[in-house]
Amino acid sequence: MASDAEPGRRRRCCAQDTPDVPKVPDSRGDSDGPRRGSLCDRHCAAINNVQGDLGELGCHLHRPRVPPAMSTPSCYQQHSEEVCESCVVKTTLTAENAVEANKLSNNYKFGFKKWKSHVTARPWEDRSEIVKELYSDLNVIRGSGGSTLTCGNVLYLLLFGWWLSLLYVLVAAMMFITVIGTPYGRLCWDLAGYFLWPFGKVIQKVEVPKSHQACKAGAGESSALLGGPTSHCWRPQCWVGTGYWHRASTVVWLCLGYPVLALAHGLVCVTAWLLIVLIPVAKLSARATSRVLLLPPERVLIRRLKMTEVPLEGEVILCCYRAVNPYYYKYAVDGINVFAVNLLPLVLVTLVLGYADSPNHLTGSAVKFTLALLSIMPLSYYIGMAIASISAQSNFAVGAVVNATFGSITELTFYITALIKGSREGNRCYAEVVKSALTGTLVGCVLFVPGLCMVIGGIRHQEQRFNSRSAGVSSALLFLSVGGVFAPTLFSKVYGKLVCGECHNVTQNPLGHYLCHNCHFDLMDNNGTLYYSHVQPLVYTVSILLPAAYLIGLFFTLKTHTHIYDIHVSDCHMPGHHHSAVVHWSRWRALVILLLSTLCMSACADLATEHISPILTNSTISQYFIGVTVLAMVPELPEIVNGIQFALQNNLSLSIEIGNCIAVQVCMLQIPILVLFTIFYPTNFTLVFSDLHVYASMFSVVLMNYIFMDGKCDYFQGTVLVMVYFILLAVYFFAPSPSGC
């Protein structure tokens, strides 16, 4: 938008992406200036030349080589009469180290997997207080903890506190009965009150008596659980001289009391960990089992803290104020999100149950299919993180090869196993389900993924902007790919012979109207001359041209026109603070995890296709709907979560690129690979789709391109995309089953 002093003279110079960090402000506003101009393109390319070398160490990446006299205001001064939108101001992102800078840069590269999570350990001082609290041990006493009567603490009392306290009372009674275990009986009695309501109380380890100072002098007092040196005084060997581990009471305690309580605390720990928000309770139980219950009773002191009381003597072992922390969804173990950690046992259960119970004695096919489908989600996460880790630690060529090879491995594994099973059984329904899944992935990534990100991001940000130039490249590739994929279908509609299964004369007149059912275009008339001589060569031609167009798109965006991606990763987050990269997964470890996850993915896909047959035959829901929803979108859930996280940080460009890249890869990589696979392993898969798939895909691409034209959006436009997606799902839900199912 031109200024008031010079209306209509200057057009917008900057069509920028809104990043997750502040960028150079654009005081010119919006206008509808031309997108191309030879003089402006040359000038903007000079300004936005970000092909800096990576030779500089530290956190500098793609440092632009801009002449001192050349700056953004000069764009206005020298070309005030005609300055186009394509003049892009660089978006500056910050990274803690060079590896993170590589990952951020890869996020903006077309064809590379977009990854939100860190691939390196973040410096402790850069984390927020909320995150620091997640990783802290329960041994910190606050000056003022506030009221402990909260809903989360009451939930702990109802779920764990009452029966855990009762168990301690029973163990205390058993210790009192043995007489020699009386000291442990008193300890259990005190701990019964503590675990009934542990909030606002503290467990301390009192000082060692003077007779034990010699032992203490030879070993550190801190524990490995607290991150300090390993305590030798805690080990049994150190207490041999004092007779602690030779006491009869200790033997009775380790044989009768400790195993029962350790089992109970283990159950509490696992349950609380799986619930995620109750992870503080899991830490409480783990610390009680490994520290408190293995100390001599005379060294354990339980106190209730007052609001201003801070004990000065003795080591604090346990001090808990809250049982529930809703921010634990951010918690990670060795860089792996806690949700992916909790879902990993599901993969093992699925594989064991699926292959050990082949006759379905324990569970039915529906349960095994559901488990196999759910197991794909954590495996997709591990594959994504492995790809991001390898790409961030490698050069561009290695990263491009890894992304091209494993970027679509999740979907292709399922599609190929389904086609193989359909070919062996002679069932055409599997090929139709694969086509529905391909279409569902295309439609979902074009409408649902960006629409949902716009809605969620629009709740926090009134208006979000994105790079319309980069989105335009993806839109152009989508138009090309959709036209190429559905070209054989349109060809068959024009030249195929319409064949109907059954026709009825509704007017009782030989020349009247006929009502026909199960009509389709037959391509096998005259011994398949039309198909083998015309349609099949067209399919092979399209399958060659689409990957070639994808490679040209990669060359355009990554080599010759990198300036359209207004991304620039520059100096470290704080001047003078340079952190070395401590990667979560090394390249070899990431490669091993990538291969193992791919192998498990193949096994889960095999189980899913093995047990989907009863669902397809016995379900009253259209097979179209099953394909476009469950089979298409469940493997993409990790990508959807990444897109939502980017949108919440006001980085809608990456949210849009996630959906667009998946849709482009479906048409330009996955479908040609499936066609190539049918050459070596004949299946029922042909590149001829139903009319419903054609109309839904084309309408989705046209609508998406219309929404993305102006480079800005809000929650209303996202709602439109999501509503259209749900309307198409309703159409698929009420559509009759495809032929062959």
Number of beta-strand segments? 13
- Count of DSSP helices? 24
Termini separation (Å)?
57 Å
Q: What is the helical fraction, as a range of percent? A: 55-70%
**Beta-strand residue percentage:** 5-15%
Shape: elongated
User: Which structural class fits the helix and strand makeup?
Assistant: mainly alpha
Strand ordering within the main sheet: 3-2-4
Write the layout of secondary structure elements.
Layout: H1 38-47, H2 72-78, E1 91-93, H3 98-107, H4 129-135, H5 151-178, H6 182-196, E2 201-205, H7 213-217, H8 248-275, H9 279-290, E3 300-304, E4 315-320, E5 332-333, E6 336-337, H10 338-356, H11 365-392, H12 396-406, H13 409-425, H14 429-460, E7 464-465, H15 468-485, H16 487-495, E8 497-499, E9 502-505, E10 514-517, E11 520-522, H17 525-560, E12 567-569, H18 587-610, H19 613-618, H20 623-633, H21 637-648, H22 652-680, H23 691-707, E13 712-713, H24 715-734
Parallel strand pairs: 1-12
Antiparallel strand pairs: 2-3, 2-4, 5-6, 7-13, 8-11, 9-10
Helix pairs in contact: 3-11, 5-6, 5-8, 8-9, 10-11, 10-18, 11-12, 11-18, 13-14, 13-18, 13-22, 14-20, 14-21, 14-22, 14-23, 14-24, 15-17, 15-22, 15-23, 16-17, 17-22, 20-24, 21-22, 23-24
